[in-house]
Design goal:
The protein contains six helices and seven strands, in the order αββαβαβαβαββα. It has 178 residues and is of the alpha/beta class. It has one domain (2-173). It has a five-stranded parallel β-sheet. A two-stranded parallel sheet has the order 1-7. The longest helix has 13 residues, at 38-50.
């Protein structure tokens, strides 16, 4: 599968800049900008090319028949968005249940243009005591750029400003939403 993914990835003209820290077994991976459903298959291709297990969350409705088996097979975890339990706490506990758990999240929380990132990913990493790994989804350059693991300090505003610098001038599939 990896060879097929690599063939498709390079045929589409994409490249990877940086090295994924595969020795880090638990982390929150933030991929941005998230502007299109195309991000999903490009993320799957990227993950296959670097040959690293990365999970993602999806609304539980996506995990019903006929596609539920597929989303689980590719590392998806269903999330009940309407449960009254604190989602940050629930997701942070997932890290305790796995020896290796790298969770990909979109800091925007949507494919629409946003002025401010959601902070859930940050507080999940802080609570689970895991680093945040920034990865660009730059459709302009056709590049996934891998940053360095960033350990949240608890100063959310300062840490977010620092993380957002990594994504400066990165173009999503639909630049008007970036």
């Amino acid at each position: 599968m990896r060879k097929l993914a690599l063939f498709i990835y390079t045929a589409l003209g994409w490249k990877i800049n940086g090295t994924f820290p595969s020795e880090v077994k638990k982390m929150v991976v933030i991929a941005a900008p998230h502007t299109s459903w195309h991000d999903f298959y490009m993320g799957l291709l990227f993950r296959s090319v670097i040959d690293v297990q990365i999970n993602f969350l999806g609304k539980k409705e996506l995990f019903k028949w006929p596609f539920g088996w597929y989303f689980r097979k590719v590392g998806g975890i269903p999330l009940d968005r309407f449960k009254s339990e604190n989602k940050v706490d629930r997701i942070a506990r997932m890290f305790e249940d796995h020896d290796t758990f790298r969770l990909a999240l979109s800091p925007e929380g949507t494919r629409k243009k946003v002025d401010h990132w959601k902070t859930g990913f940050y507080y999940i990493a802080l609570k689970a005591q895991v680093p945040i790994l920034p990865i660009t989804m730059d459709f302009g350059k056709k590049e996934h750029r891998i940053g360095r693991p960033f350990y949240p300090t608890g100063n959310c505003a300062r840490d977010l400003r620092q993380l957002q610098l990594f994504f400066k001038n990165v173009e999503g599939k639909f630049p008007e939403r970036s």
